[in-house]
Each structure stands twice: as C-alpha cells, then as structure tokens.
Input
Amino acid sequence: MLKVEGVSHSYHKQGWLTRGGQQVLHDISFEWRRGESLGIIGESGSGKSTLGRLLLGIEKPNAGTVRYGGMPVTRRAVRRGAISAVFQDYRSSIHPFYTVQEALMEPLRLLKLDASPRRLAELLHQVGLASSYLAKYPHELSGGEAQRVCIARAVAAQPQCLLLDEAISSLDGSVQMQVLRLLQELRSTLDLGYIFITHDIQAAAYLCDRVMIIRQGRIVELVETAKLPHVRSPYARELLRKVVD
Output
C-alpha cells in the first residue's frame, strides 16, 4: 500500500528563474491499494505532477509523509522496482544514443534481473512491438512506439505500481486509445496497479477504479469512477460539464 498523510509542499525563492514562495500542495492525504488504478486529475498548475514527484521520492515534502509498505518512499525504494514511472516526454526518457535493446537492459542490469535477448523480446512483445525494434534508435520510432518502449522499460522492473504522469497527453488521439488499451491488458496480465496523473477525465474514467480531483493543490473529490457523475464539488462538476459539452 502507498499511503500519503498530511502532505504539503512549496517551492522557495532561490533565484530569478525559480518559483518563489509558492505553496503547491496543501494537506494531501490518500491511499493507493495494491492492484488498483487511481486517477489523479487536475488542470495545469494544480500540483498533480509535483505530487507525482513526491510519490516517486524524487522530492521530499515540506510536511507530511509518503510511505510504501509502511516505509518512507525514497529513490532507492523506487530503484528496487516497487514503483516505476512513465512520463509525458517519451523522447527525453530514452537516451538518444541508446538502441531500444540498451534502453531496456539498463533497468534490468540495475536490478540484477534477467537481461537475456529472450527476455528483451518478451518485453517488447508485451507492449505490441516486434523483436526487430531492439536494434532501433529513438529517432527511428514514432511517438506511440517510443512510449511503448518506455512502458516496456518501466514494467521490466516488475513493479507493483506504475505511475503514469501525463503519459498519453503528447500522443495523437487514436494512439492515445491504443496505449490505454495496452495499459488495460498489462494490468491484468502483469498484476499491475496504476497511479494515472492526467488532465483528461475521459482517459481516467476509462482506466481507473477511483479518481481524485485536485484544484490549486487541494483534493476536492476522491470517488469511485462509477460515481463521477454524482460529484458534489462545483469545480468537479464544471470539469465534467466541459467534457460533456
């Protein structure tokens, strides 16, 4: 279980290029249960990506705790494979001078897992790519193919939780749907759970069991997906109305 309790976070002014004195998260508390898919929905600037970095242990909250299995989340815990991540910018997620084979081997070697050619081909097969892609470089891949490689790289660590931070937002509409279907398949075949950070309510409703809506760093709704049409907060209702319109 991933448990977030009383988390607040702010950025303090350090220079003219930094965000100065801005609190981006306010007293955030929730739990992610193993095997579930939890959507975190918010508009740009809502604090959802900052929350994602805290969940991964990339940053530490100014107040509150983030624990996985009862222990504080750290980068080391993430490296051990309990939590993996897929980000929006699939191009920068893969070293430009690595082949797909080298990109997939990196986390496997780090975690001392099977990095045989057979295992690499299996990982590509899981995301719908042929083993011939092992010899390709990032610039030879389409956006959808590159993001599939990123997903394969993330699941190579055999995580319990896969955090997806706007992982489909840079893709074309039809490709987005293909990736969402792939994520549904992987969830059942690999016993994966997701934390799906997005601004897209429709995508979250498709993939997630529960959704949490954030506004200005505060949780305004946390409901089962089936109950989304009955949310109470005016902000959440307005987001839903925009989708319908």
Observations:
- The mean pLDDT is 90.
- The longest helix spans residues 173-190.
- Residues 93-158 form one domain.
